[in-house]
Amino acid sequence: HAADAHRTDLMTITRFVLNEQSKYPESRGDFTILLSHIVLGCKFVCSAVNKAGLAKLIGLAGETNIQGEEQKKLDVLSNDVFVKALVSSGRTSVLVSEEDEEATFVEPSKRGKYCVVFDPLDGSSNIDCGVSIGTIFGIYTLDHTDEPTTEDVLKPGNEMVAAGYCMYGSSCMLVLSTGTGVHGFTLDPSLGEFILTHPDIKIPNKGNIYSVNEGNAQNWDGPTTKYVEKCKFPKDGSPAKSLRYVGSMVADVHRTLLYGGIFLYPADKKSPNGKLRVLYEVFPMSFLMEQAGGQAFTGKKRALDLVPEKIHERSPIFLGSYDDVEEIKALYAEE
Ligand code: AHM
Ligand code: MG
User: Fold this and answer.
1) How far is the CA of 84 from the centre of ligand 1 (A)?
2) Which of 5, 93, 142, 202 has its CA 20 to 30 A from that of 238?
3) Burial tier of 247 (Cβ tally within 10 Å: 0-12, 13-18, 19+)
4) What is the pTM of this model?
5) Looking at ligand 1, which residue's alpha carbon is closest to its atom 3?
6) Binding pocket residue ranges, ligand 1, CB within 6 Å
7) What does the pLDDT profile of the chain (335 residues) look like in tens digits?
8) What is the atom index within ligand 1 of the atom nearest the CA of 247?
């Protein structure tokens, strides 16, 4: 039976990536090693997030422990774990984290051919109330052997070789693309392994959910206002869309990927570039959306064609089902 085969022939994320890489005869397993270090970081954060509510009891993040020392906040702790895991992989040269103002340049003896941009724990406003949060990452290759600089990551998203996120939700899920579709893996806590549970995720062409912080509506531009109005009061006889907004990008994008619909973080009068960061929020999620058959648009162009000038640059973003993003593109074209 097929189901039985799945249960006994487990496709772990390592096995899956090794299979994918074996298509490239020149591959020496570097990517697989890099990914296994990212996976380790995700498992650590998952375990820390699950214990967060017990912090007072056992002295975890953000609380004072028995020795009276202030413990690290969960986001700081997560960042430390990812930076150390990535450096020790021996496969990275430049790291950009949302938590660190400056890029990290790996010391020469530990350098490798990848650059990783990441948000170790996104959705910080949701940490203390137990709502889903996540890690987002994107991977570039270093295309020279000179001294690495930030120029090595100030490249358009379409040059990423892989992107993904891990969601710490009702289950822990890692969603990954290496440019051959989008694949979802669920952590089996008893095995400590991510198992392929969602092969080749495709986003529905059209959805019935929109996801946006409507509290900012008074400051929106024309196209965003018109679009959301259309979601609520459609004039073409179609049913109104539902609104879902967690306020954790990973959770909102994950739902959009699986159910279809659109996620918006537009520009507004107070933040003319929106809120979300190009390198480690907009690019990885846009990469995944396109790989799943959806689209990602900035209000001006295809999100993956942006060329960031600064590592923590922001951009407005509209991403999700192909047809839904077409509608917002049309509204911006009318302007
Ligand atoms: P953070 O990096 O401080 O956690 O902010 C990023 C988060 C995203 O996960 C989410 O999409 C967005 O901020 C929500 O912002 P808002 O509270 O303005 O709606
Ligand atoms: Mg963030």
Assistant:
1) 25
2) 202
3) middle
4) 0.94
5) 124
6) 98, 122-125, 213, 247-249, 252, 265, 275
7) 666 666 789 999 999 999 988 887 777 899 999 999 999 999 999 999 988 777 655 545 555 545 555 556 888 999 999 999 999 999 999 999 999 999 999 999 999 999 999 999 999 889 888 899 999 999 999 999 999 999 999 999 999 999 999 999 999 999 999 999 999 999 999 999 999 999 999 999 999 999 999 999 999 999 999 999 999 999 999 999 999 999 999 999 999 999 999 999 999 999 999 999 999 999 999 999 999 999 999 999 999 999 999 999 999 999 999 999 999 999 999 98
8) 14
Distance from the alpha carbon of residue 165 to the mean position of ligand 2, in angstroms: 12
- Is residue 74 within 8 Å of 61, Cβ to Cβ? yes
Residue 235 burial (CB count, 10 A): 7
SS3 32: helix
* Whole-angstrom distance, CA of residue 164 vs CA of residue 184: 9
How many C-beta atoms surround the C-beta of residue 201 within 10 A? 18
Beta-carbon count within 10 A of 163 CB: 26
Q: Reading across the β-sheet that carries 242-243, which strands appear in turn?
A: 242-243, 209-211, 262-265, 317-320, 295-297
Ligand 1, from 136, 245, 248, 250: best to mutate by most atoms within 8 Å of Cβ? 248
CA of 1 to the centre of ligand 2 (A): 43
